[in-house]
Amino acid sequence: MKFQAKDQGLHSKQHNSIKFIHASDIHLGCAQYQNEYRADDFITAFKQVLYLGIKNSVDFIILAGDVFTSIDILPEKLLQIIKLLEKFHKRTNNIIPIIAIEGNHDLRRYSRGLKTERTQSWLKLMNHLGLMILLQACENGDKRQKLEFQEYNSKSKIGNLLKIRFANIFGTSYRGERPKSHILNLYNSIEKKEDEFNILLQHFGIAGQMDNVPGLNLCVVNKLSNKVDYLALGHFHLQYTIGGWIYNPGSTEAACSVDNLFNRGVFFVEVFKDANGFSKRVKSIKLINREILWKTICLPFQFKEKNKFFEYLLSQLSLYLKDFRNELKPTNYQLPLLYLKIIGIKPVKTCKITKKEIRKLICGSFSILDARIYFEYNRPSKSIVQYL
Length: 388
Hints:
This protein has 388 residues and is α/β, with parallel strands linked by helices.
């Protein structure tokens, strides 16, 4: 199946070049900290990805897994995502395909506390509705058997290879943290031609890019460099590139507190073809995300009354946070998410101070979306980075 431009007003297609957006780890449906406004933040980040596709007149958009955060999602949010995709395709006259693979979150095995088969995902529904193209191998039950790449069929909506002009886009679903044997299978299955640019969509991390997080050894992955021109990765939430052919854009929104420390975003890629082969330009684009505040408050002495503790806490936070009378709507990204670490001398047990109480007090007193509280009493002060 080959996509061609139907509207030259939107795209000025050149047969010797292609343009695409590479994004990953969008985590749609993630109501972080059980806050539905945070769920909207993840959808808004995805909306920016689609907008960048239109703005840059791309040929396609690739999503390298974890498009959804799990199979649990509120019907209202799912409908919001479907309408967003329908609007995108209508505006672009269906000439910019969105190509995705399933990540570990898309295939999460637990729903409502029950274990499910790892064959269900919302990406399969998006593929069925024609809103996304899901690249996946036809399972034959034998993982040892050679992988076969079949061109995507628009009628059956089955396949793991999509051809768009001189680009071949290969993709398979998540195969684990260290899919060593899978890499060998990919190498033996991908055909490389001089006049074709091979893009491989995968969902795994490279060892050493994140501390204490498992990944695949680079020596194993490097074998693919003879067959793949652009390895489009997802899984790790920080952005990195290796060797001019391995690219991981990072998550589009902070799915956990540590993500705020990472460089994240999407890649805008332009590939040029001439008599000497291929050349490419890869630009990192940072998305607009909700403001994050990291604060540490030290208790100088042992509080014996809860009210006194709360008074001190509010007086310290008033130095950093806006007064609640300057209220912003929760959808406004200037309304921050607060990460607060409380250190120093622990209040007496009779105070019975809980994180839930502190959260309620802060959210009711200042213009913030939400607050996450961390206690670290009676310990040497650490930086918030070290703590998290």
